[in-house]
Amino acid sequence: MNDEALLSVRDLRTTFGSSLTAVDGVSFDVRRGQALAIVGESGSGKSVTMRSVMGILPRTARITGGQAYFGGRDLLAIGDKELRKIRGREIAMVFQSAMEAMNPTLTLERQLTEHLIWHGLCNKAEARKRAVRALGDVGIPDPEKRIRTYPFQLSGGMRQRAMIAMAMVTEPDLLIADEPTTAVDVTVQRQILDLLKGLKDRGTGVIMITHDLGVARYFCDDAVVMYAGRVVERAPMASLLDDPRHPYTVGLLGSSVEVGGRELALRPIPGSPPDLSRRPVGCAFHPRCPRAELPRCQTEQEILTIGPDRDAACWKVTVDA
Ligand SMILES: Nc1ncnc2c1ncn2[C@@H]1O[C@H](COP(=O)(O)OP(=O)(O)OP(=O)(O)O)[C@@H](O)[C@H]1O
């Protein structure tokens, strides 16, 4: 475990049924006041990784190994009751769609004050004050009035802000944001990222799950790239962008769009990610990889080679280094 880390995940494994390993030995650290991007195409295991840590997996999933240290506790070992005390208070989540996180039948007031009251952080009057302040902080006009509305009475962008206010109101140490800007237009995207930046500047650690390296480039300090349930590259964000090592990262960079909508050279990676119940023999990326020149690319599972500040899981990169 890294002593400086707010969250240290080690060798996490999560399976569905007997043959599908969705998360296969994933490790990373998140530091206070820093944002870690978890990037990868759809189905690479980003959400299952974070849902494992938060204890909000579907019933059919099982964590079969690993640790997730947060504030001296292993979140994977402490049990549901203890985890519920941490969730929403010390760790909060923001989702792609506010509809997923918010209850359509409750007013913003009920939803924003619920964690404060349930966790015993303050009384009802104080909770309301904090909720109004949080709505104002995320740029919702007339928060005193808006707090009495239901989520469906807000525009998509405002609902997304209200969800962020809901996550921020308990002043969590760690915020997990799962594709928080996918469903909004580019102007709102920028505003939401700036809101999250403010949170980071106040010392909150952020994990940003995204398939979009443009978003990660704008917001994150470090990055973990996932492919087929495994970490294939880990690096400071700037180094990853300037000098991507893993051929998959190179491919992702070639297919990303900058925040603000300006297109970079858009070259999608040919092929599609594997069905995880039938993982290719050898390196999981080799059927799509332009550099899979070594015999072992097709026969031996890749391993993450740890460098001073760069880790990559690619036989070719290891040989060339
Ligand atoms: N409810 C489920 N039942 C069975 N398998 C699942 C389930 N949810 C996820 N998986 C498996 O886990 C893999 C990883 O899913 P996950 O949602 O973590 O991907 P992701 O990288 O977050 O993708 P996206 O960007 O689309 O959310 C999927 O490819 C799928 O094989």
Jot down its keywords.
alpha/beta; binds adenosine-5'-triphosphate; 12 strands; 12 helices; Rossmann fold; 321 residues; globular; four-stranded antiparallel sheet
Q: How is the secondary structure organized here?
A:
Blueprint: E1 5-16, E2 20-31, E3 35-39, H1 46-54, E4 61-70, E5 73-74, H2 80-86, E6 91-94, H3 98-101, H4 108-118, H5 124-137, H6 143-146, H7 156-168, E7 174-178, H8 186-201, E8 205-210, H9 213-219, E9 222-227, E10 230-236, H10 237-242, H11 247-254, E11 305-306, E12 311-312, H12 315-320
Parallel strand pairs: 3-8, 3-9, 6-7, 7-8
Antiparallel strand pairs: 1-2, 1-4, 4-5, 9-10, 10-12, 11-12
Helix pairs in contact: 4-5, 4-7, 5-7, 7-8
GO molecular function, one term: ATP hydrolysis activity
Organism: Kribbella rubisoli
Family: Belongs to the ABC transporter superfamily.
